[in-house]
Design a protein that fits this description.
Length: about 180
């Protein structure tokens, strides 16, 4: 569905451009297109597929989050409902190697101090930067590099607000967000 949604968006944009008679108008349309960041388009597509998934299967919610070569996630908030199975896909939309710009998605238990966890994670290189034996992780993906993606499934924890991060060294200070269970 995401591919279809994107296709519709692209076709829509082409149609808009094609409708413009004057060169000026064309440029205007193109500017508008550029102003709409790929990020928000992706989010819209993701939201759509998520709600469609909800209508067909209330117990599973699909979430997609992207990481890039600029050390950023494209979302700083993810909302799910208590009791749902979360099917989360992390996509690395960059090109850089896992050893240089690796990303993972780590959901932390409430009360975990991000800085402290992040510092422990630095020492856990051999374990994909997840501290061995930690009880601070509810769910996590493996570490991936540019062009890769990974999907995990887990049960949403009890209602509340949780932090998610990328635990690659140094990334947690900007690659983080709120995971909200309603
Ligand atoms: Cu990262």
């Amino acid at each position: 569905m995401k591919f279809l949604s994107k296709t519709v968006l692209i076709l829509g944009a082409v149609a808009m451009i094609a409708c413009g008679d004057k060169k000026e108008e064309k440029e205007d349309k193109i500017t508008i297109g550029d102003g709409t960041s790929p990020q928000s388009q992706t989010e819209a597509a993701t939201d759509k597929s998520a709600s469609e998934m909800n209508s067909s299967d209330e117990d599973v919610v699909e979430v997609t989050i992207e990481g890039n070569d600029q050390m950023r996630f494209n979302k700083d908030e993810i909302k799910v409902k208590a009791g749902q199975t979360v099917r989360l896909t992390l996509k690395h939309v960059g090109e850089m190697e896992k050893t240089v710009m690796g990303h993972n998605w780590v959901l932390l238990t409430q009360g975990t101090v991000i800085n402290e966890f992040g510092q422990k994670a630095v020492q856990a290189k051999d374990n994909d930067y997840i501290p061995e034996g930690t009880d601070a992780v509810i769910a996590h993906t493996k570490m991936i590099g540019g062009g890769e993606e990974v999907t995990i499934e887990f049960e949403a924890p009890e209602a509340g607000e949780y932090d998610f991060i990328c635990s690659f060294p140094g990334h947690y200070s900007v690659m983080k967000g709120k995971f909200i269970v309603e």
